[in-house]
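Why do we care about 3D structure at all? Because function follows from shape, and shape follows, mostly, from sequence. That is the central idea of this module. The next example makes it concrete: a single protein chain, its amino acid sequence, and then its structure expressed as tokens.
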Amino acid sequence: MKRSTALLALSGAAFIYTTTAVRAPAIAMEGIQVGLTVGSMNRVSPVLAAERKQENFEPALVHADQQAEAVAKLKKLHERKGRPPNIIYLVVDDLGYGDVGAYGGGELLGAPTPNVDRLAREGLKLTSTYAQPTCSPTRAALMTGRLPVRSGLIRPSLLNDTSDVSSEILSARLLSQAGYRTALSGKWHLGEKESSRPWQVGYDEFEGFLGVVNAYQEEHPTDTDVSHDPELLAQLHSMPGSRDLWKATAKDGGKSLGKINWENSRDLDQKFAAFSEDFIRRAVRDGKPFFLNHNFSKVHYFNQPSKAFEARSATKDVYRDSVIEVDDIVGRLVRLLQELKIADNTLVVFTSDNGPEEDSYPESGFTPFRGSKGTTLEGGVRVPGIVWWPGMIKAGRVSDGMFDLMDLFNTSLAVAGVDPMQAVPKDRYVDGIDQTSFLLSDQGQSNREAVYFYNMDMLAGVRWRYYKMSTSEIQAGTGNVRDLGGLDNTQVIIPPNGFMYNLYIDPKERKSVMIEQAWVPSYATGPLLGVHGMTLRKYPPKVMIRVR
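And the structure:
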């Protein structure tokens, strides 16, 4: 088997041999064959405890008492309010784990974030929330509940990108069918293809752009080879690709509000905030439960804070000024919920689509972990995750339980009264997990037993408890700048035996303990990867997967 091109359509047993130096014991090898059947994963290995309730859904840990508590809370809320709860995602672009005060940044970095910090103080702060290494894959996973290799969205979409999610089932579509008014505000970044735009795949309303903000900023002053060359700039603008700010509805289709450029890009987030506020007000006026997926253009380079936020940070740099602007918009939207007296009936999630990018370093985000955007090191995939719901989520909770942003798919549907296992066709595999009990129980524990890591089409490893096994790593260090990451500054490392880290004692992933802790790949991470391989064999992904 060639290391770089092997297709992950292997039996679970063969898959374990290709990914670990330590052979799994016989009990686990035999158990792999029943890994997809309904029932407990302890038949695969005695240290695994998740249960599979349906063949095409990821197995989950079961906390029956906590689930009963969550169901009772939701029932009582519905009886009091007479309608399902509202749902809001606040997704920042490229925000670092350590940028906001609640995660150690804020004032420390010269950019206070009192509004985000308030959500953490009054809600649940998750310290092990995971995204994908880059933006489009995370957004696809968040909306579909599926790993990017299953949906085919494995890399960031570019101008004129023809990525297609029309065959995918987005949470927005299911929520709209359940009576919700749904909207996406801001960044889409799942391609420009006709029939695969937000208002065509489930969102009732959309105001935003289809790509990523830097794709529209060719005139920025530091890019002198373009901004000082009118002929080249005109040629670039004549090339295919949507540079439009769109306004659209599922009923009437989309129309352009004009082209985005360097100068007007500074005000995009203010426009999106105004749209989101208006959408919320209209939904409340009409007595409709709503789902709002609010996606910031910031703090993806090239940052330009709107005029009111220029020089607001202690460092006066564009990145931290933009962090302050993002925080202010979070505050505006939360205050609106309180003004309309719907905060206690609205689930709010604040997060980032990946770790900080370092291509524009030093005007970029901060993470205490090793790595950055574009890597499956913790710095690339561990992101802030705050969940706020007054009266439903106990204030001041902090948990290191694992939460993958894919879990928002299952959890949002469950909160809305839609059973994901009934709503999703059985011809596809769902990697997300219903985390309702984790969020709503006062002592809630995560229902996720493992998180799987991918870099585009390459399986990169798995986390179980606090052990993270890496079958490949994309690391910083091309020799240009010491330890500097970014999509332009990384290299692939394929260790002969794999790496494994104890994230509690080694959160920077500096020293592998694969050999010292050989029982972990033998009894836990190896069997988990084997079962994962079986899901890919049973439900073939849309892209060919590379393994070691």
